[in-house]
């Protein structure tokens, strides 16, 4: 009886305290927990994808179906929220972008129904390749086109997300292949990054700037592998500066090409690839290329 008598005033006191919390003073020292918007495809139809994302070991904040899917039960497409945005969805895996890891903790993930498929050679004999084709031949993929109505829904959803999360800058709208190098190909070369850019979603380069760099590189030749690695790293990719055209460099170059040069996603460092990379650096990382990547420090040179 004594314990109950003592407990009642304490509970009343806590209740009163919770009702008198003031929001009169607000700190300006904060930012959003959401820093990235990540695009995916599912590789399965509606039913398989829904099962995997709601009952399996992975999840995503949003799922967008496509037309012509016999397993989709409705006559019109809609956006489906599977995880509330304030919660962490498990869509990014072991990931890296712009110096940050654990992208699940800091991102919103969108899955699009698309039955792309990739086969992988299970064994890699060496980390150093005689050519990009050596690594490229170890993966064989098919990429169906995305449904236009599906993309329209994606554009509307993405614009809404960006309006509510202003800390997601254009270079932080990425594909799964950008943040999980070598393991993921989605959203693939048919994903309309440039169309999204035209609607204010994500990053793209200025063609005139890329053309200027292309013409200069035709005369000057390609920069060193280390300089290319440095620029890719400063743009956002999780690549180490080794000075060698190794497997991680192939994976990063291919991911970059899937995003910005999907018509030549071979993983080879080409003049066109470097011209586009330099144009993006000029637009979004002004000064960094000259300041940090003229004589980059190799991993082997670090103390």
**How many alpha or pi helices?**
11
Number of domains: 2
The residue ranges in which pLDDT falls below 50 over 5 or more consecutive positions are 1-7
Tell me the fraction of residues in β-strands, as a range.
Answer: 5-15%
Strand order of the largest sheet: 3-2-6-1-9
The ordered H/E elements are HEHEEEEEEHEHEHHHHHHH
Which architecture of the largest domain per CATH?
A: 3-Layer(aba) Sandwich
CATH class of the largest domain reads Alpha Beta
Average pLDDT metric? 91
CATH homologous superfamily title of the largest domain? Peptidoglycan recognition protein-like
Main beta sheet: strand number and arrangement? 5 strands, mixed
Shape: globular
What does this structure look like?
- The protein is α/β, with parallel strands linked by helices and 303 residues long.
- It folds into two domains: 36-118 and 140-198, Peptidoglycan recognition protein-like (Lysozyme-like); 207-301, PGBD-like superfamily/PGBD (Muramoyl-pentapeptide Carboxypeptidase, domain 1).
- The protein has helices at residues 2-19, 46-55, 132-136, 148-164, 176-179, 193-198, 207-220, 225-235, 247-260, 271-284, 288-292; strands spanning 36-41, 62-64, 80-81, 96-97, 100-101, 107-112, 117-120, 139-142, 173-175.
- It has a five-stranded mixed beta sheet.
- Strand 4 (96-97) and strand 5 form a beta hairpin.
- Helix 8 (225-235) packs parallel to helix 10.
